[in-house]
Amino acid sequence: MASPFTVRQFFARRGPLERAHPNYEFRRGQLEMALAIEAALAEKRHQIVEAGTGTGKTLAYLAPAILSGRRVVISTGTKNLQEQLYFKDIPFLNGIFEGGIKACYMKGRSNYACRQKIYDAEREPVLSGLTEVSDFSIIREWEKTSETGDRSSIPNLPDGSTAWAKLDARADLCTGQKCPSFDRCFITLMHQRAQESDIIIVNHHLFFADLAVREGEFGAILPDYSAVIFDEAHELEEVAGQYFGFGISSNQMEDLRRDALAVARRKNLLSRDLEQMLRLLAEHAERFFALFPEQEGRSGFTKQQEFLERHSEAYRRLLSALELLETHLSLLKDAPEEIAPLVRRLRQQRETLDAYMKGGDPDYVYWVERRGRNLALQATPVNVSALLREKVFSEIPTVVLTSATLAVGGNFDYVKARLGLDGARELIVPSHYDYANQALLYVPAHLPDVRSEAFLSAAAEEVREVLAHSRGRAFVLFTSYQQMRQIHDRVAPRLDYPVLLQGTAPQRVLLDQFRSTPHSVLFATSSFWQGVDVQGEQLSCVIIDRLPFAVPSDPVVEARVKAIQASGGNAFYEYQVPQAAIALKQGFGRLIRSSSDRGVLVLLDNRILRAGYGRVFLNSLPPYRLTTRVEDVERFFNEEALPEPSPGG
Prior knowledge:
Elements: H1 7-11, H2 16-20, H3 28-43, E1 47-51, H4 57-67, E2 72-76, H5 79-94, E3 103-105, H6 115-121, H7 129-145, H8 162-167, H9 186-195, E4 199-203, H10 204-213, E5 227-231, H11 236-244, E6 246-249, H12 250-266, H13 272-289, E7 297-300, H14 304-330, H15 339-358, E8 364-371, E9 374-381, H16 385-393, E10 398-403, H17 413-419, E11 425-429, H18 435-438, E12 439-442, H19 455-470, E13 474-477, H20 481-491, E14 499-501, H21 507-516, E15 521-524, E16 541-544, H22 555-566, H23 571-588, E17 599-603, H24 607-610, H25 614-620, E18 625-627, H26 630-637
Parallel strand pairs: 1-10, 1-11, 2-4, 2-5, 3-4, 5-10, 12-17, 12-18, 13-15, 13-16, 14-15, 16-17
Antiparallel strand pairs: 6-9, 7-8, 8-9
């Protein structure tokens, strides 16, 4: 689009941004980042940028994207960030750019209502119980006026609404263009808006879901684009692994059986034969999935051949039940349109199960995960770098990776190796926050090693003492649920401050309670390590129990470690330490969120001082003041003089 100004002019003192924003503060790092992205878009090359907290990176990539005249996809780490971009940042910029900005946001199908399902639910027995009927009335009234069909725009629908799960637009029962409501479908309207937009805001899950289906029978989710900007790019390896892998679960199979039964009842197709087939599918699936390990959590699964030799009959019966049901439904005369997606799902589940049980692909790690009654069989690429190089970096002219946490020890070697990114230009933009005066890093050198039995009680006492000095106002973050609960149970009864515990309420509710309750303390795990923003003195302390190394026995981690070792590399320093350093930066990044924030960061794991690899962590963190004395913490919170910086800290 034609514009009366350039990127440099946009961010300049007394430029369009300053005139539009009363509190605008010129930041040299923000301009430097914006110019680097402008050049990458113009020259059709890749760029990687670490932008420290407070840089203003959102505007630093939005402005050059808008001015580029190209269709640019912005991919974020979370749906919350998507909504911030679309409902806050884009409207603000709309007032600056002549002619406005053609922008839209796209989420996964389960975030949108299916109008046809809503209409059908008024005539057919879909809902059960007074709660679902009540939720349905809310959804039905909202649908009449909603422009997007996005669930997040329903303010009074409970988070766990089972009615919504029966009315959303997932593709499982979608009949596509044959649907009577296709022209008014919220998914159709979303695609139309995307075709008309220059800026398309998605999340990483939707972006990689699009890559995964582009070569399939349903084609692309996103329209063609020439550039993508990944915000929160440190999450790409994990998300890409999910979508380049494959899997099947007992819940998926039960959902398919339940959907088939519901469609058959609504459409008067439920014969005695079909009822028998559905019953057999449920029985054979239950028997088959019960043959896998009973322990909760994830574990590797490499002995497919041995498993099949012992349980071949159970496996064959499950495959036969899937195939028989697929054949029966596909041969129905004058079948309603809802039958076609059921047949497709049956075929996909049968083929996925067959591929998993054959196993043997050395490029994948095979594992099982049991959570409650659900058992998932999953295969994940050991290394996504070749896949990303082929499908992303070689295909898309411009790819920008940005995050506050991408560099390890001052370079991008780790993230480039893990993601297969070659030849990109690199930029590190330091935060403009005064970390030396705003933050203190406290590592209690006297604590026992985190791996010893004595650590737990000593750490609990240390947490209690620090919280007394901080007067609450803290996140206490853990690398495991077990340790969270153990230390919480020791500390909470002895605190004079309100205590919140992850798992007792949804994350959004806990955050609202934390923000609104003076001097509160939140005990939490990984889901609060990133994407959580609490500004001001309400959050004045972040305590982390240990260096956040990934669990070495996790099957995906274990497979990646073995792959690096097999190629002659040092997995600990090339993979495990850098991964943990980025995670630690994310956790500590919760504390200083504005130039007026002050606070103490506490790491109870003193290996960062004792072990040789600790220097990698320290060199990756912002320039905090470092102390090993709790008296300095007390002085900091009493606003007394800070200690002198320790050498190299």
